[in-house]
User: Which sequence fits this backbone?
């Protein structure tokens, strides 16, 4: 369905046109009508399917822009995702004078965020922990919030925010609508739905073959000592310009980035303990193409939405099967073909095979020859 065919206000239609959107995605087609009717919804949809517009457009159409009271609250698990949602909403409201969105997350000076709140935002996008900090300081009021959204709900609840989320929702006494968007329907997600939603519209957007990204997946046997050199050779010999490398721990990201730099590779890392200024700097360089290799953890990568990632390299076999799907989905976007590699050490073959079977993925085994060229393994 085309956006131009929808009965949306002209400011929103102008915004989506300027953002380059023509066709609505499946999650948008299925979510927007029930949300405009005022129904609670619980939507299971893969990452990168346009969920921000799916909940953002109906929320914007129902806001009272003449009021300076906060009417909508959107919770996100990480600062990166909160920033991404805020950026998207600000683009959607670029032709809506008076629409104000505030973004609250840890790592940024709280007084800077207080300045945002003094402008009277109708929408607040926040991580749970930082929102509770503001509530303790009485710098934010949720008494007039009518609409709430939990984005990446499974990730947020799995990260230990269950009690924070329920505490926040309990304070929304006038909440009229709760939307939940999640890649999986985990038990905590279903518990929140049961406690806080009323006859929600259930929406499922399953990946289909013609819309699934084309990603060629490779596996390479490696040792801990060989991995930095293997990654450097993969990137160099294939002339990849923008690569994401995933590690399981924040300590591994910093160590690997140093090792790659020692091999004259343009690499830097992103993890949860970094100051926000440093995180913004690293992400800015990666987005504008001046940083070739971004080494990151799964949690720190949430909310990163960049179309032109040439390749994804798994430095470690992920601890979660779903993490593997999320990782490789960073490449092959915008109808382009992508490529991923997973480095596995001796003893990890069984875990790798089980993960691939459960996620329905197939990898092509490769190995380095004596000239450090990658080739197929002869059966």
Assistant:
């Amino acid at each position: 369905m085309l956006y131009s065919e929808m009965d949306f206000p002209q400011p929103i239609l102008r915004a989506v046109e300027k953002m380059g959107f023509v066709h609505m995605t499946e999650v948008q087609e299925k979510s927007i009508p029930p949300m405009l009717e005022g129904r609670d919804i619980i939507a299971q949809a893969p990452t990168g399917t346009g969920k921000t517009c799916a909940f953002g457009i109906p929320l914007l159409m129902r806001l009272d822009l003449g009021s300076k009271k906060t009417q909508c609250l959107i919770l996100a698990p990480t600062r990166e995702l909160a920033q991404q949602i805020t950026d998207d909403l600000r683009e959607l409201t670029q032709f809506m004078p008076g629409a104000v969105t505030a973004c609250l997350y840890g790592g940024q000076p709280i007084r800077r965020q207080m300045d945002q709140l003094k402008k009277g935002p109708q929408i607040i996008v926040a991580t749970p922990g930082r929102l509770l900090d503001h509530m303790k300081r009485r710098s934010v009021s949720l008494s007039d919030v009518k609409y709430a959204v939990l984005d990446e709900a499974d990730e947020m609840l799995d990260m230990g925010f269950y009690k924070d989320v329920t505490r926040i929702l309990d304070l929304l006494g006038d909440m009229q609508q709760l939307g939940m968007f999640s890649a999986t329907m985990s038990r905590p997600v279903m518990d929140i739905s049961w406690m806080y939603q009323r006859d929600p519209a259930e929406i499922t957007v399953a990946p289909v073959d013609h819309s699934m990204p084309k990603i060629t997946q490779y596996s390479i046997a490696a040792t801990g000592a060989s991995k930095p050199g293997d990654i450097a050779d993969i990137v160099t010999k294939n002339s990849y310009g923008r690569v994401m490398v995933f590690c399981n721990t924040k300590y591994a990201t910093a160590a690997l980035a140093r090792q790659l730099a020692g091999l004259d590779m343009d690499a830097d890392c992103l993890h949860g303990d970094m100051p926000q200024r440093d995180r913004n700097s690293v992400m800015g360089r990666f987005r504008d193409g001046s940083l070739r290799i971004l080494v990151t953890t799964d949690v720190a990568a949430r909310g990163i939405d960049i179309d032109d990632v040439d390749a994804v390299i798994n430095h470690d076999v992920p601890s979660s099967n779903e993490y593997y799907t999320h990782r490789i989905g960073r490449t092959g976007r915008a109808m382009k073909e992508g490529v991923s590699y997973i480095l596995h050490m001796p003893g990890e073959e069984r875990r790798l095979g089980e993960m691939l079977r459960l996620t329905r993925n197939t990898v092509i085994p490769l190995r380095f020859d004596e000239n450090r060229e990658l080739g197929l393994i002869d059966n």
About this structure: The first helix runs from residue 10 to 18. The two ends are 48 Å apart (CA to CA). The chain has 13 helices and 15 strands.
